[in-house]
Amino acid sequence: MLEVRRRLRERGVLGINRRNAEYVRLWNPRRLYPLVDDKLRTKELAIAAGMPVPELYAVVSAQHDIRDLQEALKDREQFVVKPARGSGGNGILIITGRRGELYRKSSGAVMEWVELDHHISNALSGLYSLGGQRDRVLVEYFVQSEPELEKISYRGVPDIRLIVYRGYPVMAMIRLPTHLSDGKANLHLGAVGVGIDLSKGVTLQGVQGIEVVESHPDTGNRLAGLVIPHWDEILKMAAECFEMTGLGYLGVDLVLDEKHGPLILELNARPGLAIQIANGSGLHSRLELIDEHADPSDSPEERTAFARQHFAA
After folding, report:
1. In angstroms, rounded to a whole number, what is the distance separating the alpha carbons of residues 286 and 148?
2. Please, are residues 126 and 132 in contact by the beta-carbon 8 Å criterion?
């Protein structure tokens, strides 16, 4: 075990204890956590900063709001239901189509309105929220995935995760829905994480769980070598989230919509570390380099240029 730890340190791999002690606690004041722990507050913050986000159809704050929601959604065939304070993809329900009062989920399964009503009621009660606290529920636009990304995904919409440190993009991956993940782009549910060359926006190796994979488990398509569209814009948007939130160690999640381009999906003050496996590279050495060269006066454009120069695959 000691030998394994030594080798991981030599490769610059960041562990959870070090992440918490040296980066999350030092650079993320707790008073700022509510800005990213609540998806509705994050959306409002992004809109105020001029950042593009998925359109919000409705906010359900109490049980009696559910009755009005059915009427509000009568002309919507596709939408996403998500708890405002949910984590890890828990409680997110993706509706990809409907026939009358029958709603089709991203997995292909069908549910009735009474089941949707029950799901929202559970979310309001705090079943999916951080700490089990009472919650609100967002109903928003269902992103139409960029066609290039559909080649390496299964049914759901892939999202792109970037780690941003002191305003500098550090590492990136794209998370691909699978049959196992029920069409959701969440690694702990079984989605595939694929590293991205930060300089060129080109996909690298993939990982599902702790297993490195070369092709998507459902489509069979090769994962490496795909150029992510709008990469310049994605990097700049991620860098700008530093000014938007004040958080120095941040996970930025974006989606690529066919019509609207990159959209901010959500932010995370305690982003996971599996991104290192997907990239075959450690975070710690990159974070140390930023500490050596970071300039508080650098603009988002200058910070992204630094990242592209120093963090190429």
Report:
1. 29
2. yes
pTM score of the predicted model: 0.92
Q: Are 124 and 134 in contact (CB under 8 A)?
A: yes
Q: Which domain holds residue 76?
A: 56-140
Number of domains in the chain: 2
- Pick from 85, 110, 140: which residue ends a domain? 140
Q: Examine the domain organization and report whether 211 and 238 are in the same domain.
A: yes
Spatial separation of the C-alpha atoms in residues 26 and 153, rounded to whole Å:
37
From 103, 119, 140, the end of a domain falls on: 140
Provide DSSP, the chain. Answer: -HHHHHHHHHTTPPPHHHIIIIIIHHHS-GGGTHHHHSHHHHHHHHHHTT---PPEEEEE-STTHHHHHHHHTTT-S-EEEEETTB-TTTT-EEEEEEETTEEEETTS-EEEHHHHHHHHHHHHHTTTBGGG----EEEE----B-HHHHTT--SS--EEEEEEETTEEEEEEEEE--TTTTT---GGGTPEEEEE-TTT-BEEEEEETTEEESB-TTT--B-TTPBPTTHHHHHHHHHHHHHHH--SEEEEEEEEETTTEEEEEEEESS--STHHHHHTS-SHHHHHHHHHH--TT--HHHHHHHHHHH---
pLDDT at 10: 61
Locate 159 and state its tokens. Answer: 């999202």
Instruction: Give pLDDT tens digits for 49-81.
Output: 999 999 999 999 999 999 899 889 999 999 999
Contact in structure between 62 and 76 (CB atoms under 8 Å): no
